[in-house]
Structure prediction request, 82 residues.
Amino acid sequence: MPAWPAVLITAKRIPWKTLFVAGQQVYERSKKFRDNLTDAERARLGEILRKSKGRRANLTDKEAGRLKELVVKGAKGTAGGR
Prediction:
């Protein structure tokens, strides 16, 4: 089974739980992904994760999309389509 960043990069539709856990990993392991996200992006990632409380229904579609962008950028080092 591929590592979680590979799953994020190749998946077109990412299951919510996978996205949430990957977001936590990117946020918590900031040293490893330090150069991939700016301080503002990392702060926004934390805000979205806290607001969601692990539930997709707690986020707007825009916030969920931003979460996906930040997770992919944090894992991959690019903006993922932007």
Q: What stands out?
A: Helices lie at 4-10, 16-28, 39-52, 61-76. The mean pLDDT is 78. The chain has one domain: 15-76.
